[in-house]
């Protein structure tokens, strides 16, 4: 460029050059060009590699959470332990706590070993108990209370193996790890191998992870994400029910009716700034206004939904305004021309034409709200809900609950590494929801979007 | 649930009102819609809206205000000797509510008659046992003043609910009568309905303003409260962050600021070069096929929730960095939670943010400028470096500032990936903490809201809000200024 006049003016010694042969300077410039291009390719590749790594980590760590190791053991429901007086009185049977069922499970385990010809490496059979999940005794107790008539029989139960046994079956727990682990010994793993060969242990698809409730710190094998999914669902209902109508109404006003003055300028600046306020600040707002000031219940999906509504409102308003703006003025003019009022032209013509765009924006806003965690932590949407599903619509909104991302956060904080697997599995479910929502949005856009 | 029933009744009145209002208008026009001022439906909408808007407005306001008023009335009745500070009062009030709810539950389950519940006294019945039978567990035995407060609470609640039902129904029926009697063929129903709808639209648009006001007020009040308990000079200039819930905390913001700043710098150092070069490549070099594949793929990174990045930092990136820099290798890194872990992952999160904003801005540089430069013999990269970039620079700076404000406000990645210790150190392999992470930890503990250890979170939130707001306003101003240049 500027060095185009590099040959001294007036000098007779013109170097002979041709466009066909590259001189050094052109070569240098071409190299710079190639380098620059390579930087660009490298940047895009790095971005894509990060994405691939992230997805690979999620799938590799999360997929095992969907299967679980079960074992089938024959439990003798001994009458002298469960119903001492022998009168099958349901109240008396209920008095035997889950602790009273432990010996039955230990017996069942040693019998299983004997049946399959496996020699127990333990001096006491009691040590076998560690292989079965703590949830087994509750499971058997529930069965006995539901069928008191079967006391005295031997019933086959399909119980969860403990999380360490499960981890060993999935390759998460290695033999070397057990030296520091008081929950399981190397002998247990020998028994596990033998039982696995005998076909007593089976790894099966675990619906309880998708549909079940959270479990206590010591039994990760039992924990599921189902209840927090309900919590997220109720929150999304609140967000949809409030953010869509309010967002659409606000956009219609700002786009179609608002006069250009200070007040509407203020609202517009406000909305674009609200869209960039960190989400945790909305959590502080929710805590101060809804919980401290208005005394709404903590951990309730209603409050979570209100906070997320305020958070997604700017997103929805911005996208709704864009799709209202995309409807050409000729539509409005035509409606006004045949005698419609301004309001009629908007509600009868502009709004229906803008609807696909509005719905797309709303779905994307909802997806954003579904994945949001930080504000939920502040308003306590991390309720530990081990069993109770909401019994009515109103209690679904007002009873304490958790939400999917908050549940994942809780699992990630727990000490037992078996919970990490649950957290990754939870992420897979969360991402599946987000993916579905985004695909619906894309389809809506492809199918109904009109170019004027 | 009575409120739900009330809502249904009001809705039913509105629906009936719609049909009756329309029928009356049609009747006054002798069944010929041409004699009406507005379309028949508008007369119906007018009646329905006159029923709904005041009744539902009062109902919502009532449902929000009643618990607050009753709370105040009842807490006045608790003797001042029973509690030392507001925290203890809150505990007593939650006991009161639980007893009151328990009594209601007992009546609903038939364990008690309403009269027996009102006549209860702590001397004759063991209330804790009685309530335990209906499934309400109380932490301690019920004090007489708690029971009397609970009885007050139930009585006021009953009165409140009754009054609300009466007033809301009266408003609904009154509204119906008013609109119905006004309906005749000359009534300008469309104009009235449209005015009402416009008012609702304006109300919806002001919710954004109200949110901002709500944020500012909730931050300001609690921050002022905090500075009454803790000197502001020590908060802004203190070099140690050591909250202890027993009192005597040192709450200096500087270590938190430093952590936030350090992590954001690392994040931007990852995101800006990668995002910017990706944007340049995609907008200037890439073939349409590559662009159609790579751009949405990069944007997938932006759609992934931050909790996922947090887990990725905690469980994948952290351990991977430890194997490279940890005790077994170079020995620089102690644990997987460190500034570099959080910064790196946050950088990944910000890549699509930088790249798609810069992409938009590069695309809006007029083609004529590129053509001019190429026509003079410049190579493509020279054109980009010497023509496109200078023209797009203000916009790109705006985009980077927006990304920086994102990084400062990001919570989940730092909560999971950066650690909990507040430190002033230059070593990126050490654990540090940020403003957002401390807001979470100060407000999710069991601290009572009146202590400086909990209130400090509001002061932190205020600082965060002011900084990110400043960055955003500045960045949006730059971007807008730049856009105008080429429009």
UniProtKB/TrEMBL annotation, chain A:
Signal sequence bounds: none
SUPFAM superfamilies in the record: MetI-like (SSF161098)
CDD domains per record: TM_PBP2 (cd06261)
Gene3D superfamilies: MetI-like (1.10.3720.10)
GO-annotated cellular components: plasma membrane
Source species of the chain: Pseudooceanicola nitratireducens
Family stated for the protein in its record: Belongs to the binding-protein-dependent transport system permease family. CysTW subfamily.
Lipid bilayer topology: Multi-pass membrane protein
Name listed for the protein in its UniProt record: Phosphate transport system permease protein PstA
A Pfam cross-reference name: DUF3333
Residues that span the membrane, as ranges: 36-59, 229-254, 274-294, 300-318, 350-371, 423-444
Keywords in alphabetical order: Cell membrane, Membrane, Transmembrane, Transmembrane helix, Transport
InterPro entries reported for this sequence: DUF3333 (IPR024573), MetI-like (IPR000515), MetI-like_sf (IPR035906), Phosphate_PstA (IPR005672)
Subcellular location: Cell inner membrane; Cell membrane
Domain called ABC transmembrane type-1: residue spans: 229-441
GO BP terms: phosphate ion transmembrane transport
An MF annotation (GO) of this entry: phosphate transmembrane transporter activity
From TrEMBL, chain B:
Classification via InterPro entries: MetI-like, MetI-like_sf, Phosphate_PstC, PstC_N
Pfam families reported in the protein's UniProt record: BPD_transp_1, DUF3708
ABC transmembrane type-1 domain segment(s): 257-475
One annotated Gene Ontology cellular component of this protein: plasma membrane
GO biological process per UniProt: phosphate ion transport
Subcellular location per the Swiss-Prot or TrEMBL entry: Cell inner membrane; Cell membrane
Organism: Pseudooceanicola nitratireducens
TM annotation in the entry: 45-65, 162-181, 201-223, 260-282, 303-326, 338-357, 387-408, 454-479
Gene3D superfamilies according to UniProt: MetI-like
Protein name: Phosphate transport system permease protein
Family: Belongs to the binding-protein-dependent transport system permease family. CysTW subfamily.
Signal sequence range: none
Topology in the lipid bilayer: Multi-pass membrane protein
Keywords in alphabetical order: Cell inner membrane, Cell membrane, Membrane, Phosphate transport, Transmembrane, Transmembrane helix, Transport
GO MF annotations, alphabetized: phosphate transmembrane transporter activity
General function of this protein: Part of the binding-protein-dependent transport system for phosphate; probably responsible for the translocation of the substrate across the membrane.
């Amino acid at each position: 460029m500027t060095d185009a006049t590099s040959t001294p003016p007036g000098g007779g010694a013109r170097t002979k050059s041709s466009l066909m042969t590259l001189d050094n300077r052109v070569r240098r410039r071409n190299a710079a060009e190639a380098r620059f291009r390579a930087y660009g390719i490298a940047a895009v590749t790095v971005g894509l590699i990060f994405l691939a790594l992230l997805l690979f980590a999620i799938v590799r760590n999360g997929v095992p959470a969907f299967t679980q190791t079960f074992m089938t053991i024959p439990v003798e429901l001994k009458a002298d332990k469960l119903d001492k007086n022998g009168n099958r009185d349901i109240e008396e049977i209920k008095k035997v706590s889950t602790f009273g069922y432990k010996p039955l499970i230990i017996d069942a385990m040693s019998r299983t070993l004997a049946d399959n010809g496996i020699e127990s490496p333990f001096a006491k059979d009691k040590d076998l108990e560690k292989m079965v999940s703590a949830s087994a005794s509750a499971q058997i107790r529930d069965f006995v209370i539901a069928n008191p008539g079967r006391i005295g029989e031997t019933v086959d139960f399909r119980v969860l193996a403990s999380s360490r046994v499960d981890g060993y079956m999935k390759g998460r727990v290695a033999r070397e790890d057990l030296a520091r682990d008081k929950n399981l010994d190397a002998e247990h793993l020998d028994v596990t191998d033998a039982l696995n060969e005998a076909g007593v242990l089976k790894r099966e698809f675990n619906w309880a992870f998708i549909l079940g409730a959270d479990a206590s710190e010591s039994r990760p094998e039992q924990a599921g994400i189902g209840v927090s999914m309900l919590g997220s669902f109720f929150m999304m209902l609140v967000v949809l029910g409030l953010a869509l109508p309010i967002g659409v109404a606000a956009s219609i006003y700002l786009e179609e009716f608002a006069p250009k003055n200070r007040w509407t300028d203020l609202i517009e600046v406000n909305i674009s700034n609200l869209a960039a306020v960190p989400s945790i600040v909305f959590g502080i707002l929710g805590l101060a206004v809804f919980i401290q000031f208005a005394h709404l219940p903590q951990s309730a999906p209603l409050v979570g939904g209100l906070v997320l509504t305020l958070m997604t409102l700017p997103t929805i308003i911005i996208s709704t305004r864009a799709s209202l703006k995309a409807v050409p003025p000729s539509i409005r003019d035509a409606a006004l021309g045949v005698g419609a009022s301004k309001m009629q032209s908007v509600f009868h013509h502009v709004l229906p034409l803008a609807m696909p765009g509005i719905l797309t924006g709303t779905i994307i806003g909802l997806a954003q709200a579904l994945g949001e965690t930080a504000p939920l932590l502040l308003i306590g949407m991390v309720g530990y809900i081990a069993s109770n599903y909401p019994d009515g619509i109103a209690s679904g909104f007002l009873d304490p609950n958790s939400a999917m991302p908050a549940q994942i956060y809780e699992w990630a904080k727990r000490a037992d590494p078996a919970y990490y697997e649950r957290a990754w599995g939870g992420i897979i479910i969360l991402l599946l929801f987000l993916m579905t929502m985004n695909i619906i949005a894309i389809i809506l856009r492809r199918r109904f979007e009109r170019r004027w | 649930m009575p409120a739900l029933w009330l809502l249904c009744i009001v809705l039913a009145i509105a629906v009936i009102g719609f049909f009756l209002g329309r029928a009356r208008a049609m009747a006054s026009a002798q069944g010929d819609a041409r004699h009406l001022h507005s379309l028949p439906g508008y007369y119906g909408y007018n009646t329905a809206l006159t029923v709904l808007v005041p009744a539902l407005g009062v109902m919502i306001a009532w449902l929000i205000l009643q618990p607050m008023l009753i709370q105040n009335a009842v807490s006045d009745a608790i003797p001042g000797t029973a509690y030392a500070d507001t925290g203890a009062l809150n505990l007593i009030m939650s006991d009161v509510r639980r007893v009151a709810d328990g009594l209601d539950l007992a009546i609903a389950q038939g364990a008690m008659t309403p009269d027996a519940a009102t006549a209860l006294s702590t001397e004759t019945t063991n209330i804790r046992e009685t309530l335990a039978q209906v499934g309400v567990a109380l932490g301690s035995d019920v004090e007489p003043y708690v029971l009397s407060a609970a009885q007050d609470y139930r009585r006021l609640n009953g009165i409140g609910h009754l009054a609300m039902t009466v007033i809301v129904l009266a408003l609904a029926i009154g509204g119906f009568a008013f609109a119905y009697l006004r309906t005749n063929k000359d009534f300008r129903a469309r104009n009235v309905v449209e005015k009402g709808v416009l008012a609702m639209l304006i109300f919806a648009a002001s919710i954004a303003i109200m949110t901002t006001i709500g944020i500012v007020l909730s931050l300001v009040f609690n921050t002022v409260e905090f500075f009454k308990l803790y000197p502001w000079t020590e908060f802004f200039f203190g070099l140690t962050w050591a909250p202890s819930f027993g009192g005597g905390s040192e709450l200096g913001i500087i270590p938190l600021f430093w952590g936030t700043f350090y992590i954001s710098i690392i994040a931007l150092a990852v995101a800006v070069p990668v995002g910017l070069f990706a944007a340049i490549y995609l907008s200037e070099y890439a073939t349409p096929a590559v662009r159609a594949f790579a751009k949405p793929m990069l944007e997938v990174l932006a759609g992934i929730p931050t909790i996922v990045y947090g887990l990725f930092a905690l469980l994948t990136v952290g351990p991977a960095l430890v194997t490279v820099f940890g005790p077994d290798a170079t020995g620089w890194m102690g644990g997987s939670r460190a500034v570099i872990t959080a910064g790196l992952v946050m950088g990944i999160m910000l890549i699509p943010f930088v790249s798609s904003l810069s992409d938009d801005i590069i695309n809006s540089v007029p083609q004529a400028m590129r053509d001019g430069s190429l026509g003079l013999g410049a190579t493509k990269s020279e054109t980009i470096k010497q023509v496109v970039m200078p023209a797009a620079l203000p916009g790109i700076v705006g985009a980077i500032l927006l990304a920086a404000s994102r990084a400062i406000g990001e919570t989940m990645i730092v909560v999971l990936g950066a650690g909990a210790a507040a430190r002033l150190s230059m070593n990126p392999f050490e654990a540090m903490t940020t403003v957002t992470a401390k807001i979470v930890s100060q407000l999710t503990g069991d601290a009572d809201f009146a202590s400086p250890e909990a209130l400090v979170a509001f002061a932190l939130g205020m600082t965060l809000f002011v900084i990110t707001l400043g960055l955003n306003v500045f960045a949006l101003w730059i971007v807008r200024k730049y856009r105008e240049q080429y429009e």
